[in-house]
Write a structure and sequence with these properties.
Helix 2 (about 15-35) crosses helix 4 (about 50-60). By secondary structure, the protein is mainly α. The protein has a single domain, classed as Winged helix-like DNA-binding domain superfamily/Winged helix DNA-binding domain (Arc Repressor Mutant, subunit A). It contains 5 helices and 2 strands, in the order ααααββα. It has helices at about 10, 15-35, 40-45, 50-60, 100-110; strands at about 65-75, 80-85. The longest helix is centred in the first third of the chain and has 20 residues, at about 15-35. A two-stranded antiparallel ribbon has the order 1-2. A hairpin with a 6-residue loop joins strand 1 and strand 2.
Length: about 110
Amino acid sequence: MEATQPNSPEFDKGQGKNTKHLNQLQTIFEYLQKHIATASMVSHATGVPQKNICRYKRDLEKEGLLKELYKTSCKHTGFKAWYLTTDKAKFPPPSIPQQLSIFQHGAQTRI
């Protein structure tokens, strides 16, 4: 009986796709632990397609594992884009939603 090789069609079905997804997700996560970069810069550095990075970005944001730091011109494309990180030490401090801060401010000034 032959063993299934990673580049064979049988390998790409089922579990192979999940493995590729996890490898790409882990690659992006680890890259952004060490670098602050846009999705285009991450794609260029890692070889993971930008469409996939955008999908993984959403998933990591929902889990609280990725944050957008600032929006400025991308060093790779020249277009405005968000610079990203997964390094929690670089996460911006949580902000109070504007509506809530208005009510808190108003409560302090009333007598």
